[in-house]
Design goal:
This protein has 148 residues and is α+β, with helices and mostly antiparallel strands. The chain is built from 3 helices and 10 strands; from the N terminus they run αβββββαβββββα. 20% of the residues lie in helices and 36% in strands. A 5-stranded antiparallel sheet has the order 5-4-3-7-6, with helices on both faces. It has a 3-stranded antiparallel sheet with strand order 8-9-10, with no helix packed on it. It comes from Kineothrix alysoides.
Length: 148
């Protein structure tokens, strides 16, 4: 990757990302730029924390509770999954099942499973099952980059 930095006092800050083909590295860079300073409030052990959006691997709803998974921690949030889906769509998050949103920038590869399902392998080694209903959405993101 080549980085070019130029000072131009007459223009506002502009970031241009040029790439030969879209891949997860490109998605992560764009996601980080778009979400710079953006965060969710997550709770862990009775304390509230700012969870930066680029640090989120996936979000899961279990028993009417919503959990945010990062590299090192799991946080509980008061927001519902449908609210987070709307808020995070522009940051490369995609719904992969009724109860899970996935950060497409953290996806390393997909594997086919039985019953027309897919398994998403993430950069942290975790594996998420993609329901067949949501396969077209994840394919759009992976193969065409529609969330950028």
């Amino acid at each position: 990757m080549k980085l070019i930095v130029k000072e131009n006092r007459e223009k506002e800050l502009t970031v241009t990302v040029e790439y030969p083909e879209q891949n997860n590295q490109v998605l992560r860079i764009i996601n980080k730029m778009k979400s710079e300073g953006k965060f969710l409030i997550g709770n862990e052990s009775g304390r509230s924390y700012k969870v930066l959006i680029p640090e989120i691997y996936y979000i899961e709803s279990i028993d009417k509770r919503t959990f945010v998974y990062t590299k090192d921690a799991v946080f509980r949030t008061d927001k519902r999954l449908y609210q987070l889906e709307k808020e995070l769509k522009e940051y490369s998050f995609v719904k992969v099942s009724r109860n899970c949103l996935l950060n497409a920038g953290e996806l390393t590869h997909l594997e086919a499973l039985t019953n027309s399902r897919l398994e998403a392998n993430l950069t942290n080694g975790e594996k998420i099952i993609i329901s067949r209903t949501y396969i077209p959405e994840i394919k759009k993101v992976v193969f065409r980059g529609d969330l950028i």
